[in-house]
Amino acid sequence: MQGVIVMRFFHMSDLHIGKQLHERSLLDDQRHVLTRVVEYVREYSPDAVIIAGDVYDKSLPSAEAVTVFDDFIVNLADTGTTVMLISGNHDSAERLNYGSRIFTKSNIHVAGMPPRNSGDHLKSVVLKDEYGEVTFWLMPFIKPGYVKGVFADENAVGASTDAVGDCCSSYDSAVHAVIARENIDYSERNVIVSHQFYTNGQTQPSRTDSETISVGGIDNVDVSAVKDFDYAALGHIHRGQKVGYDYVRYCGTMLKYSVSEREDNKALLMVDMKEKGKPAEITELKLDALHDVRLIKGKFDEIVRQYSDKNTNDYVSVVLTDENEVYNARQTLIDIFPNLLSVSVDNSRTNREYVEEYDDVNVSLDELFAEFFRRMQGRDMSDDERRAMEDVINISCRQ
Ligand SMILES: [Mn+2]
Predict the structure, then answer these.
(1) Which of 14, 29, 103, 237 pairs with 329 at a CA distance of 20 to 30 A?
(2) What's the whole-model pTM score?
(3) Ligand 1 centroid – CA 128 distance (Å)
(4) pLDDT for residue 389
(5) What is the Å distance from ligand 1's center to 343 Cα?
């Protein structure tokens, strides 16, 4: 590739193709942003494009979602770049792995399955620049249980049972062990591609509402597992950020996948590797969306006045602060915001209810349902309704 003297690659992750935002399909948005990525590839000629997991939103993606990704991969391959991708926690490892051996012939390297027995190893891809070789290690999403067999086998040829227990007792130990057994030569340049929840000591990455991560952080892996690499291309966390080191990066999603990401700047990372020991140069290539995601908060009348002639196609979440309920607010707002995501109320009543909910967790099921009924219907239950509810609760609690 002319003009490229150092290794250059793009880092992206968490495409979540097929994802919906408040029941709204994002396939057009995804097609649009992936087209932009291919334009960037033509413009900057990276040697490789890395996709660090969560290609699809579901392990069984829809036919349309598969087509969107297929078109993207074919367009990437047409540019002549090398593609490397791993499975994330949302992908089916087996499905993503399908056809991977034949794809390799088109410079598309897919690592769907993590190693499962002692004969399996991480897939690696070696590319060269004028400073020599760079080895890319593709490590699919790992749960301790997935890789138990790797160490159980090794146990059979002499390792202690304790070592097996240690290797697979947590996400942290499993990932450390899977990397350690590759005997990587860190005097050369190495890049790891990984999809895990990396933390830096007690410091957690900044999260969003669109990730699926265990509460309490049992799935976390300490960043020490990947600190010896020259670059860690990470996926899983949907907000772009570094973890402890400049070269350990989450690139984040290409699109805003929740209202909590409304202020995020979504970008593709372009990484230019330098010689061993010199920090890589990292550039953010901005990704403009077909629709922005916004939160608009205020009094109904003011919102109507301010936005009725704006013709915005953005995905908008509205929070009304009126003290009194607004009649048919939703219908009026949909006329103003055709891509309305949600309408909610934030006033002194909802704040009080919020506090009460958390103050009073010891209410009985009867009381809880009575409160739910009151909020939904705007009145208390009649005696007949109350008896019917009590019957239902009694029957279901006896089973
Ligand atoms: Mn994800």
Answers:
(1) 29
(2) 0.84
(3) 30
(4) 84
(5) 26
